[in-house]
Amino acid sequence: MAAPHDEAAAWSEEAARRVWAGAVPLQVHLHDADVTALPPPPPFLTLGPRIGYLPLLIPVIKAHFSNALPPGVDTVWFEYKGLPLKWYVPIGVLFDLLCADPERPWNLIVHFRGYPSEILSPCEGEDSVKWSYMNSLKEATFIITGNNKSVMNMSHADQVALWESVMKGNLDGYKNISTRLKLGPFEDDGLVRTASAERQRQQNSDEPESPGSSKPCRVPVRLYVRNVQEEVEYIEDAIPVSDWESVSYINRPFEIRKVEGRSYITLEHALQTLLPEFFSSKPAGRADDSQRAGALDSAADSSDATNSSRSSQEAGQALASPREAAGAAKKANVKLVRVQGIELDMDIPFLWVANNLKNPEYYLHICVYVGTREQ
Known about the structure:
38% helix; alpha+beta
């Protein structure tokens, strides 16, 4: 009979493989204004990796539509029901956020002209996506360890190998590089140990653990809060997102501390701490957690120093959005929570979710549908 630790490790391995193998079936249509041949080309069917990004699909999509495209320089972007899609958000997150009722295949429109620069930040194809991914990885590393030296000190060859593994969905190749960053796993005792410290602790198991061998466990979290009508009975009847103003994009790390009397931290408790403005009822003593989360916001902000003005401006706007809506938040209630396409039970252990459903840049992406009343 397998030991509990071995069984848990096997389940985690299976969860990681399912996350990496996850894909959204896409049916991509060429926008009418870009069609220069008759009859119009048929839509392009493909699978979009959940952990991947739309710009990485451009080469195969362009090859399909090449005979119908207008001459000139391409400025490619995607839209869904009139909404330009943010290229740096993973495909799976966009699908979970924008499709209240999962649409399969997901019908997108691709444009090769008329880039909406007033809505979307510039994208130069794969290079821009790689830059965004590496910056997110640096931010996550800073949140987890207090610095991003392990990423900054990566050799060029390792950076290339890591990015190639993400692009190709190669989990084994990714793990071969990412384990050197020593970013986990997050543990249920509220600590995250480095690999070297853990080996030393096991070798000296008869000795008490040094307080300095572990660090408080901080989980990088990205929350996407979508407002829907309060009166909607079935979430699939929610009005489609028409602009990004109705979505709050929030970076808010969660610090795990052992609480006496609680066997583990649930997803519900984590969300109450991360999004106090959207939870009207809070157990006693939760105020300290909220204050702690606020303090961590400042730490996350400081980690953005390596980003360009694009990331800084958008993060500022996103973090301001919930505060501006504070009055309406008191009348809000959470209708749906999705992670990796799964509508999770709120009693599930948060650390299991963080360890097994995170994306390759070590962020846990959570989509939250919030019912709000019209003011």
